[in-house]
Amino acid sequence: MFIFIFIFGLIIGSFLNVVIFRLRNNENFIKGRSHCPKCNYKIKFYENIPLLSYIFLLGKCSNCKNKISLQYPVVELATGILFLVGYYLFSSNIIYLLYYFIILSFLIIIFIYDLKYYLILDKIAIPAIIFVLIFKFFNYWLLIDDYWLLILSGIIGGGWFALQFFISKGKWVGGGDIRLGILMGLILGWPGILVALGLAYIGGTITLLPFVILKKKSLKSQVPFGVFLVPATIIVIFWGQKIISWYLGFL
Description:
Layout: H1 2-24, H2 52-56, H3 71-90, H4 94-117, H5 122-140, H6 144-168, H7 175-213, H8 226-248
Helix pairs in contact: 1-3, 1-4, 3-4, 4-5, 4-8, 5-7, 6-7, 7-8
């Protein structure tokens, strides 16, 4: 079963690559065959096998010989691995497993798009927010207090970035970070949202501090913060309760 889940993750990762590329180029990501972005060559089915095709083609288009972006095998492999971890942790509940597969897919798109283009698209973030709200509503409707606590977590996540946005007049964070903050709060609830924000800022500081010290970047440099928020969210999805228990053990 683990092999099947991994292969399934590779296939979904391949589809996510298509979505990311076509979103950038305003193409329909459901219809139409994949093509080389350099020469527009229509990729044959046997040249579009997740991970394996990149290896067999030596990372080059079979037609124009231009290099294929490393993004493609990396996203496929990462999705396969994340789906495996998700299956290991949530396989006891098939509904929740499918839910987390979809959430992971949204987060991967947000991560790659923000990494490459410094932008978190509303056409990804907002459908993700709506999806989580609907799913959580049908799972929390008997527990109204829990559902409103979830909504509060979304407000806290989005509000934190909205506050920075208005104080800095959009210089510190963008509107996409606000939507991502809402999404994080709805996914993680309370106090998971606080853990994820803490991990993101710690990760961002550790990653960027050497560049600031070496003067490769300044404190005013534009940073795609979704690149830190998404991994933090995924970590809390998988191990948030253990992190919280570990922290409380020190109090």
